[in-house]
Amino acid sequence: MNTTLIALAIALLVVTGMIVQxxxxxxxxxxxxxxxxxxxLDVLKASDDESFAFGYRWNNxxxxxxxxxxxxxxxxxxxxxxxxxxxxxxxAQDSDFAVEVKFGPAFKDxxxxxxxxxxTVEVEIKSKEGITQSRxxxxxxxxxxxxxxxxxxxxxxxxxxxxxxxxxxxxxxRSFIADPIPEGNIPVxxxxxxxPQFAGEFAGNGGxxxxxxENFAVSKVWIEEGCIVCNACEGIYPEVFxxxxxxxxxxxxxxxxxxxxxxxxxxxxxxEVIKFEKA
Length: 279
Description:
By secondary structure, the chain is of the alpha+beta class. The protein has three domains: 40-160, Immunoglobulin-like, CATH 2.60.40; 177-211, no CATH class; 213-278, Alpha-Beta Plaits. Helices cover 27% and strands 25% of the residues. Mean pLDDT is 79; it is low at 25-36 and 206-210. The strands form four sheets. Strands 4-3-6-7 form a four-stranded antiparallel beta sheet.
């Protein structure tokens, strides 16, 4: 009887010790993550006052997500505009990244406020999975960080990002092949340059034999408000344009050396929201 009680007591002590050890390890793991594993948002150098550039780092193995949306909110209870909210989509990112988004003139209302110490700015990034991360700071701190930023998106990605494998997109070539039109009086409206039967009639006048337009590089391409997500641009140049559920964004590693394709996508856009600058 005494031996059984002693064995039970020893077993209870061993189990209790294991539970205590697991609790301590869990607390240490949580403390380590709190101190060293927290996500970090950096305000980066933007190209103009209507754009916002930022970098974001987090433990994507512990919290896998594809972040693709950013919101900046101004809470200004004593100002003329008590609240300003701007937001934008960007190409989904599943690891440490930096991007620059175009907010437009409304973003300048945040940068130009006067009562910096009584206003607050919140930066919120969202993922496709519904994960939301936010940072709040005094407006003065935010604007000082924005104006004083020296690191660019490219420098941030070079330091913290990783080399993503290049994607290959198959584009089906399109051509027009028509049956020969019978001889006779053919209406002018049926004479098109895409039909080989009339190609000669358009030579030197923008037709098939016209001199090819020289290609060019662009320094910047962006999407203004009004995108109707028709997928036309992505169908023409998917290496540059990515159409999301609500908007079109420029891929972060987009090649900018084929200006003719970018021009074609811009001309195909029914709402004319694709803009670019030649290099």
